[in-house]
Design brief:
Order of helices and strands: HHHHEHEHEHEHEEEHEEH
Strand content: 15-25%
Distance between the termini: 29 Å
Radius of gyration: 18 Å
Helix content: 40-55%
Low-confidence stretches: none
Largest sheet: 7 strands, mixed
Structural class: alpha/beta
Number of helices: 10
Amino acid sequence: MFKHKILTLLLKLLATLPLPVVHYLGSALGWATYLSYKKYANLIITNLTLSQLNKDNVGLKKTLHCNISETGKSFLETFAIWFKDYSNLKKWYEGCTGWEHVESALAKGKGIIFLTPHLGCFEITSLYYGQFHPITVLFRPPRQNWLMPLISQGRERGKVNLAPANAQGVKSLLQALKRGEAIGILPDQAPHEGEGEWAPFFGRPAYTMTLASKLAKKSGAQVLMAFGERLANGRGYHIHIEPIISGGVSSPKLLNQEIEKAIAQCPSQYMWVYDRYKVRN
């Protein structure tokens, strides 16, 4: 318990640092982890190489080096965002492209399904939206119970609500959509066995969730792809929002194609270290 309190205190200190410093430290952490753990390094190299998003070895090496830094930044910025005063987070928002799609979807009254992959800063997108409108975000509860209060404190701010990844949580998502509100899902998160189907993801079979397509079909909600681009030199985040045409997530195969399109916009900021090709028990 004492160890957890010390660790929590250290993590909260991140929120007192300027974002450029957080990202500098995160970059150093990314490289230290990459150089120290062979399995970590191999996952990044393998997944990025097999994606074939780079035309040649020069481009691959450049993207790889950027991704090592960006992955470290992603880890540390999470805690800086969680513990930073909510009103001060506005200083880190550097614009949004595609907000008109949100307004159009809300006018239809059938709700919004935000798909936010492990791309850029996925912690910032729901908090950005939650400044203006209610959103219920699906999340997987941590294995270590002491982390749960920190997650709630960091994510449930503004008009953001959390829903656990279980039957009750899915019910909460449907209720939010019936109210014409938004929900948020990590569409590239590996689902538990029995909750997905195998579908190609950058040319390899990946066990892919079926939840997004089921919710879209049942609710008629507008599906939007969203991600928070991490700007250079700690300048903040730019939110990108794009609509997915009707039926665009009607199958895991089509869902993965939409995720691939999003990643192709900013491949250096995708979490290639995430094992997308596993099945959770």
